[in-house]
Amino acid sequence: MRDDDKTLARGVLIATAAVFLLSTYAAWRELRFAVAARTAVATVDRVTETTIGTRRTTSRRRRMVRVEYHFVDASGAARTGSFDNGPLAPRPAPGSTLTIEYLDNASRPAGRSSGGALAVFVASLAGLVAGGLFYRHKVRQAAAGT
């Protein structure tokens, strides 16, 4: 196996492993919501329009609608939360209710999941398997002398 092939294979494996580790956190969070989340009815407190971005990236600033709400969890504790919607998404009126899912330390509107996080997790897992097989193939090829 040539040294530059070995270096490339190692670099790809390291990069894919880093993406895999980061996506594992997001996928774990999604799994926790899927398995252990409870639902509650929340009351909308405030709906405000905000922009996301910095002054330096004025061309990349995006308008978002932030919805702030409060709810009472199963133990009777009052909790608050918020989420962002795009500018064209329906805006709930202050005082209206919405169903949310919550865990010990997080909440979100019911039914909202991060499919992108799961897709990156599965893709990086496939990349790790493919990269490992490729590296093994190159090592065996070098050992055979071809």
Structure description:
This protein has 2 helices and 5 strands; from the N terminus they run H-E-E-E-E-E-H. Strand 2 and strand 3 (78-85) form a beta hairpin. It is an alpha+beta fold and 146 residues long. The protein has helices at 3-36, 115-144, and strands at 38-52, 62-72, 78-85, 97-102, 107-109. The protein has a 5-stranded antiparallel β-sheet, with no helix packed on it. It folds into 2 domains: 1-36 and 112-146; 38-102, no CATH class. The chain starts with a helix and ends with a helix.
Please mark out the parts with pLDDT under 50 across 5 or more consecutive residues, or reply none: none
Share of helix, binned:
40-55%
Strand content: 25-35%
The SSE order reads HEEEEEH
Strands of the biggest beta sheet: in what spatial order? Answer: 3-2-1-4-5
> Mean pLDDT, nearest integer?
84
Q: What's the Cα radius of gyration? A: 23 Å
Give the overall silhouette: elongated
Largest sheet properties: 5 strands, antiparallel
Number of domains: 2
Structural class: alpha+beta
Total strand segments: 5
Distance between the termini: 9 Å
Summed up, the helix count is 2
Highlighted features:
146 residues, alpha+beta, 2 domains, five-stranded antiparallel β-sheet
In short:
The chain has 146 residues and is α+β, with helices and mostly antiparallel strands.
Task: Summarize the helices and strands and which ones pair or pack.
Elements: H1 3-36, E1 38-52, E2 62-72, E3 78-85, E4 97-102, E5 107-109, H2 115-144
Antiparallel strand pairs: 1-2, 1-4, 2-3, 4-5
Helix pairs in contact: 1-2
